[in-house]
């Protein structure tokens, strides 16, 4: 049985210095660098993965952390299928900031976007300032899932991206089903413009042509 | 080579005259500054309107400005004799009066912590900023006086410690751990130099902190460190010891002047978004330029919904300092500073950078194109870009 191809958009949001870029670099290039530049504008990276017989193309946006740039947020998170709201487990303020992002995303994207709350820097456990229980309970209360990661030690990073991908597929499939049901009852829902399901064979052909990745 | 020598000789003789021919200096530097014997360090000070064309005024102006800066440092950072608990009766941390010294103290600390995060991450591939300066702040240098003087180092440490305490109370934690926030490993990574010494990044931190305090409206915005970095690098590597000794003060004023050039600081102020002068307007200018010079490239960017925010935001606000390696940034800045309309030339340079990639852009899909623009190929020479920018401008 040939699988399906999915394209999803993921955005990383969170206070400066919590490790958004590190998470992305760890996942995409399996690299970690203790000292890297602060991100001034969002960076875009594409990554293809296989889940079972399906292929998934992730368009990942890593955003800048500083407050003054938040006005730019919507440009990057618009149309996202998934969001990582990242905080630093040793920095309570970075966790508080997550609440604002949750509200903002819920307001502008509704329930279309899968929310993941990510406590990064788990290698600094002994300096933890955000109680894990509180973080998990908060995540639950807003319908998000909580993850612990260490980009430095490469813990939980692959799992994080894999899990969100699976959840995005599930969400997409269930909304597809819903749509077809709605369609049958003459009640077609809004067109979704960010996800395209293409037959796998077609994608592979296109790949050969463009020679990309 | 011959032409370089000619230019070098001409610049030297220009700078030796009592009255410097600024117009001619700009003309020569629009090709790039010769950098022998610290010429660039002096020329940037002139091009950034710190040193006047009348050389006889230099000593007086330098003395005045450097004194001024020393006082900023004393008043805003060192505060000799200031004791934390002395003013408690009149003013205290819970004073809700916005005029309260404490209220601005806390706001400043927020800014300081932000600056601290960024300056430690300045040019990580260049070891320079981690190295100790020959000229640390006078008061800080004397270790035995350390007790009576404040420093940003102490203030950052204290702010982080306080945040620890507060957060623990807020969450109902009672067992306050007295160990400092940073772990052993982290201390090693970002180690402070021993007391009495300062790394170059700490100087950058001090300049930005004072700049933020003096420019309440704009304060500090992430990325300013990247604009300050190359200027400081040039000044702190001047072969002349007197220029080096005063690199910090001179750099503060030159940075201040650069930010004050038409439209440069405004790029950092998102409040000005969607007005005639902010970053949004400049990104629009850039795309308008692309459209009128190469409609097919413009169309592809439009079609792919590749917004200028995705790449040109950083190009313009940081004057391209993150797009090239430092030596290239420096020679590009020679050209930008030499121009009377720095921002205008910058936008033309950005347009040239896009047009130079036209063949790739016309072929590529969204992700290929954004990759090129976010990681500009280092195979392209600054000279070629500048030449193209000038051609576009001439039209």
Task: Please render the helix and strand layout as text.
The complex is a heterodimer of chains A (213) and B (395).
Chain A: E1 4-13, H1 20-29, E2 43-51, E3 54-62, H2 73-77, E4 82-88, H3 92-109, E5 114-120, H4 132-141, E6 145-148, H5 157-184, E7 198-199, H6 200-210
Parallel strand pairs in A: 1-3, 1-4, 4-5, 5-6
Antiparallel strand pairs in A: 1-7, 2-3
Chain B: H1 2-16, H2 22-29, H3 39-47, H4 58-78, H5 101-119, H6 138-141, H7 152-170, H8 184-189, H9 200-214, H10 224-236, H11 241-245, H12 247-260, H13 279-293, H14 295-303, H15 312-317, H16 326-338, H17 342-356, H18 358-363, H19 366-374, H20 382-394
Largest interface: chains, residues each: A-B, 34 and 41 residues
User: Under the CATH scheme, which architecture of chain A would be assigned?
Assistant: 3-Layer(aba) Sandwich
Q: Tell me which oligomeric state these chains represent.
A: heterodimer
Task: Calculate the terminal CA-CA distance of chain A, rounded to whole Å.
Answer: 25 Å
Radius of gyration of chain A: 18 Å
Number of DSSP-assigned strands of chain B: 0
Shape type of chain B: globular
Low-confidence stretches of chain B: 165-189
Number of DSSP helical runs of chain B: 20
Beta content of chain B: under 5%
Largest sheet of chain A: 7 strands, mixed
What is the beta-strand fraction of chain A? 15-25%
In the residues of chain B, how many domains can be counted? 2
Q: How would a textbook summarize the main sheet of chain B?
A: none
Give the distance, in angstroms, between the N- and C-terminal Cα atoms of chain B. 31 Å
- Mean pLDDT level of chain A: 84
> Which CATH C-level class of chain A is it?
Alpha Beta
């Amino acid at each position: 049985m040939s699988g399906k191809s999915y394209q999803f958009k993921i955005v990383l949001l969170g206070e400066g210095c919590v490790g958004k870029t590190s998470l992305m670099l760890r996942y995409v290039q399996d690299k970690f660098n203790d000292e890297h530049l602060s991100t001034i504008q969002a960076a875009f990276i594409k990554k293809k993965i296989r889940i079972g017989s399906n292929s998934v193309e992730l368009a990942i946006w890593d955003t800048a952390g500083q407050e003054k740039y938040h006005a730019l947020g919507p440009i990057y998170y618009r149309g996202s299928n998934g969001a990582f709201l990242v905080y630093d487990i040793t920095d309570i303020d970075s966790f508080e900031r997550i609440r604002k992002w949750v509200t903002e995303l819920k307001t502008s994207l509704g329930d279309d976007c899968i929310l993941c709350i990510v406590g990064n820097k788990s290698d600094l456990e002994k300096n933890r300032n955000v109680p894990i229980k509180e973080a998990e309970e908060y995540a639950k209360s807003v319908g998000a899932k909580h993850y612990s990661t260490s980009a430095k030690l490469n813990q939980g990073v692959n799992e994080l991206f894999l899990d969100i991908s699976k959840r995005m597929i599930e969400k997409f499939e269930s909304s597809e089903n819903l749509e077809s049901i709605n369609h049958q009852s003459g009640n077609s829902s809004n067109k979704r413009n960010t996800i395209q399901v293409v037959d796998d064979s077609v994608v592979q052909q296109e790949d050969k042509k463009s020679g990309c990745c | 080579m011959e032409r370089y020598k000619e230019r070098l000789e001409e610049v030297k003789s220009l700078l030796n005259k009592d009255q410097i021919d600024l117009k001619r200096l700009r003309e020569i530097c629009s090709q790039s500054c010769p950098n022998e014997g610290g010429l660039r360090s002096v020329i940037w000070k002139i091009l950034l309107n710190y040193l006047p064309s009348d050389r006889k005024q230099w000593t007086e102006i330098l003395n005045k400005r450097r004194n001024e800066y020393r006082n900023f440092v004393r008043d805003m950072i060192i505060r000799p004799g200031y004791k934390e608990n002395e003013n408690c009766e009149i003013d205290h941390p819970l004073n809700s009066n916005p005029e309260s010294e404490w209220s601005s103290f806390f706001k400043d600390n927020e800014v300081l912590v932000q600056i601290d995060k960024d300056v430690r991450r300045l040019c990580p591939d260049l070891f320079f900023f981690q190295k100790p300066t020959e000229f640390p702040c006078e008061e800080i240098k004397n270790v035995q006086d350390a007790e009576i003087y404040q420093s940003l180092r102490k203030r950052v440490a204290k702010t982080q410690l306080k945040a620890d305490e507060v957060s623990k109370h807020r969450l109902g934690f009672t067992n306050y751990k007295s160990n400092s926030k940073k772990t052993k490993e982290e201390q090693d990574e970002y180690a402070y130099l021993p007391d009495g010494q300062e790394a170059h990044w700490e100087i950058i931190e001090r300049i930005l902190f004072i700049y933020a305090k003096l420019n309440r409206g704009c304060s500090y915005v992430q990325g300013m460190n990247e604009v300050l970095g190359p200027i400081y690098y040039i000044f702190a590597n001047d072969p002349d010891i007197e220029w080096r000794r005063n690199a910090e003060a001179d750099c503060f004023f030159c940075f201040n002047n650069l930010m004050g050039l038409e439209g440069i600081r405004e790029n950092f102020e998102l409040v000005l978004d969607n007005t005639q002068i902010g970053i949004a307007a400049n990104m629009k200018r850039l795309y308008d330029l692309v459209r009128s010079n190469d409609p097919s490239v413009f169309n592809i960017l439009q079609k792919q919904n590749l917004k200028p925010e995705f790449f040109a935001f950083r190009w313009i606000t940081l004057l391209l300092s993150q797009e090239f390696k430092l030596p290239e940034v420096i020679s590009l800045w020679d050209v930008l500073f030499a121009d009377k309309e720095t921002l205008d030339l910058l936008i033309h340079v950005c347009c040239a950078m896009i047009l130079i990639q036209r063949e790739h852009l016309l072929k590529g899909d969204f992700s290929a194109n954004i990759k090129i623009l976010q990681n500009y190929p280092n195979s392209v020479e600054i000279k070629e870009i500048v030449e193209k920018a000038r051609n576009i401008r001439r039209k």
